[in-house]
Amino acid sequence: MSVILDSKVPGGSLESKWTDHKFHMKLVNPANKRKHSVIVIGTGLAGGAAAASLGELGYKVKAFCVQDSPRRAHSVAAQGGINGAKNYQNDGDSVQRLFYDTIKGGDFRAREANVYRLAEVSVNIIDQAVAQGVPLAREYGGMLANRSFGGAQVSRTFYARGQTGQQLLLGAYSAMMRQVDAGSVELHARSEMLDLVVVDGKARGVIVRNLITGAIEAHEADAVVIASGGYSNVFYLSTNAMACAVTASWKAHKRGSYMANPCYTQIHPTCIPVHGENQSKLTLMSESLRNDGRVWVSKKAGDMRKPADIPENERDYYLERIYPSFGNLAPRDVASRQAKYLIDKGFGVLGEEAVYLDFKESIGRLGEDKISERYGNLFQMYDKITGENPYKTPMRIYPAPHYTMGGLWVDYNLMSTIPGLFVAGEANFSDHGANRLGASALMQGLADGYFVIPSTIGDYIANTKLDKVTTTNDAFKNAENDVKTNVSRLMNIKGERTVESFHKELGHIMWENCGMARNKQGLTGAIDQIKKLREEFNHNVRIPGEANRINRELEKAGRVADFIELGELMCRDALVREESCGGHFREEHQVDGEAKRDDTNFCHVAAWEWNGSADKAQTRHQEDLKFENIKLATRSYK
Amino acid sequence: MDNKKPINLTLKVWRQQNTNSDGKFVEYDAKTVSPDASFLEMLDAVNEEIIKKGDEPISFDHDCREGICGSCGFMINGNAHGPQKGTTICQLHMRNFKDGEKLVLEPWSAKAFPIMKDLMVDRTAFDRIISSGGFISTNTGSAAEANSTPIPKPDADEAFLSAACIGCGACVASCKNASAALFTSAKISHLAHLPQGAVEKDKRALDMVAQMDAEGFGACTSTGACSAACPKEISLINIAKMNREYLRASITKKQEMAGGGEG
User: What b/e sequence results for A406-430 when a residue is b if at least 16 CB atoms lie within 10 Å of its CB, and e otherwise?
Assistant: First the structure.
């Protein structure tokens, strides 16, 4: 534990930290910005916003994404909304309250100063989005509309039907494409980062594979931003898009960037249940539905009656019963855990792994038109996937992996343990602690991209001696060779099993042992199983085709190899964290089915250092969390 | 929903190694397909069998599998995104097909969308149309308080409906002229509907239409095939709106020039 993780949180009162910090930053003058370059990996809300804003400031930006267009990054799929402490509803909201809700929602495992800044800039994000032409929902008077989300008792969520992520992403994308037109952002679509290049201890570039030609390319810069999203696909089935991967973060981890709290994963309570063996992904039904939907199961275990045949007094609206003050809007980790608890006891509806989300009452109160206006696309999606009409019969839902709070460790400036490597959005660990509240991911991605990174990167560049490097430098040549060697190693295994079969097996191990509930025995066993799986993958995976052209199996194989290594670390992290907090539920540590935190021993961030090989376990470091403005308390929504 | 009986299908799939090579149709069997599976999950299973035989799987673009990212899309029996209205291929489920059916799968066909491999095409022309003017020129940090400009709800709703385009390219693929009018017009009218976007609407209409033409997309002859095939049901009215914006912008531009140019 010799390494001290310096969070670099500035002094002063919580309310003035960010303003003072920005004032004390060194600036890069406009003429000099042109001489500095920044690489941005990922073009979702965080990456797209960062690339656009850095381009506007005058930096030379290179943006990379694996999709064929930056507009397709997975932020596009976010449904419900984005929080902003505007207090337009006059219902008692404030920056202070959003800060408090987020810290409490994260079960007191996030850094106070980062979360306060997030709440503070949340209001600017809404202004920015509206100025870009993002068509957020409005009231008849022309003012912006709000709805409620879990873990909050105020209405502060802005939305665009069930397509808020799409609309905000198109805003960031259009801002970025404007910079492409202006020549300040150079776009590299269908490119995957396969290594980080570190020169003299600083991040100075990346190695990418061109997914069309297979060419391995080197790119240099003065700073690198990783904004490549989360790693829920370690579970195989998740609500993430198919190409979502940990690869960019993992390559940075292997070059010295610490991985923080990898076991903090969010299992979202309302997803469409699994239908069969060939299922490739799970589909979320937005948390916003819990504004008007009521969650219930039959009071009788093993009840096989159709929902319409179960009378009102034989239904258990369990979230309303257990958490009367938050009701159906209990936070995600809490709602998921209760669903699992009841299903494990045999209360799953129609004998399935599912509970009901019922709109009958709100349709009766508001009419079908109103419900359709609020959630039309979600109801349609449910109907298409299940073949059932949710206006007539309640939705069947079940929890599914959705978001990862863990990620690369960053300080207050969002810089990782490698100087010059910044991490934004879901890829970093910083703001959500052990559980993220709904409508906070879009907020964080855009806060990081529009408002934090553009300032802190300038400060870094102004304060750092950056010698000129070119891609002919040894560090680039070595990294390029490493990537080429790894690609040919994978291609030459020529084994018997498909990439998909390894991914499925890993997902099964992770879901069973490092999912909604975890215990020592399961985690220990999982670590052994994953090691064996890695061993088998390395001599028995089959990748058809060639490496020098489009090869989707090769792309997938690289991602799955990284997921296997990450999976082992997640289990290790979960094993050491002998407490329950937020989404991390250790069965050994509970009171009446609720998470039991241990603030004496675990009020810290765990940050893992790579030791040079997958065969050597990572070293765990700690950053102690200090709560100076909020009192540590047992989290209760009852 | 009640019929859970697996079905068997024959697929006739366009296989092509790269943009410059010749392609051909190859037949595959899709056996014991669950009616609850999505179309892409059915293709995943076919691909697993192909890989086990040591061949290269069928390449197709896909990502979110929730009908929102716009990655997926190809022709099924001549229909962009297949037979179900208002649905992307990833959201199309096998309960919409009958046992024993033969399905022909082909990539989008348009000069401006070169085939990259099998069912994958290059749609970067769409990105270039957006970068030519599909934005509001506002820098980060310069925004006014969000509620300082009230926007009538009908305008905001109209703008939203146009902005719902996912950029998949089905409109181009289903048009006999391979026109990108629906895609381009959706962005032009989304922004023109809002006060923030009105400032640049003339320049935007002129620049985006010019880029659309430069990319090699065909002209619009108002057949409506695009809107009928659109998985987000983007309305044909957008094209009328684009034509109006373009016409007005062209006339006012001439007047400006006559009045002393841009200086």
Answer: bbbbbbbbbbbbbbbbbbbbbbbbb
Q: What is the pLDDT of residue A525?
A: 98
Q: Which domains does chain B have, with CATH numbers?
A: 7-117 (3.10.20.30), 124-258 (1.10.1060.10)
CA dist., res. A194 & res. A197, Å (int): 10
Residue A383 in contact with residue A372, Cβ under 8 Å?
no
Which CA distances in Å does A242 have to A279, A282, A283, B136?
Answer: 12, 10, 12, 31
Residue A546 lies inside a defined structural domain of this protein: yes
Give, as one character, the DSSP assignment of residue A40: E
The answer to whether A157 touches A125, Cβ cutoff 8 Å, is: no
Largest CA distance in chain A: 74
Q: What's the structural domain count of chain A?
A: 2
Rounded distance, CA A590 to CA A326, Å?
21
CB of B48 less than 8 A from some CB of A = yes
For residue A21, tell me if it sits in a domain.
no
**A166 interaction partners in chain B (CB closer than 8 Å):** 68, 164, 166
- Summarize pLDDT for A301-334 with one digit per residue, the tens: 999 999 999 999 999 999 999 999 999 999 999 9
- Residues 6+ positions from A427 with CB-CB distance below 8 Å: A42, A46, A226, A227, A228, A229, A230, A248, A249, A407, A408
How many of the other CB atoms lie within 10 Å of CB of A369? 10
- DSSP H/E element including A374: helix A368-386
Q: Does A1 score more than 70 pLDDT?
A: no
The CATH number of whichever domain residue A535 belongs to comes to: 1.20.58.100
- ipTM value of the model? 0.96
CB A571 within 8 A of CB A530: yes
Strand-pair partners of A144: A138
Q: Which of A65, A136, A166 to mutate to test the interface with B (most CBs of B within 10 A)?
A: A166
| Domain limits for position A590 | 474-603
Q: Do B66 and A283 touch (CB under 8 A)?
A: yes
Sequence-ordered strand ranges (E) for A245-285: 259-260, 265-271
Q: Tell me the count of A-B CB pairs closer than 8 A.
A: 222
pLDDT tens digits for range A12-22: 999 999 999 99
Global pTM value: 0.97
- From B146's Cα to the closest Cα of chain A, the distance in A is 4
The amino acid at residue A1 is: M
What are A96's two structure tokens?
């202070």
Q: Are residues A396 and A491 in the same domain?
A: no
Give residues with Cβ within 8 angstroms of A358, minimum separation 6: A293, A294, A295, A296, A307, A394, A395
> Is residue A193 situated within a structural domain?
no
DSSP track, B68-113: -S-----EETTEET-SSTT--GGG-BGGGS-TT-EEEEE----TTS
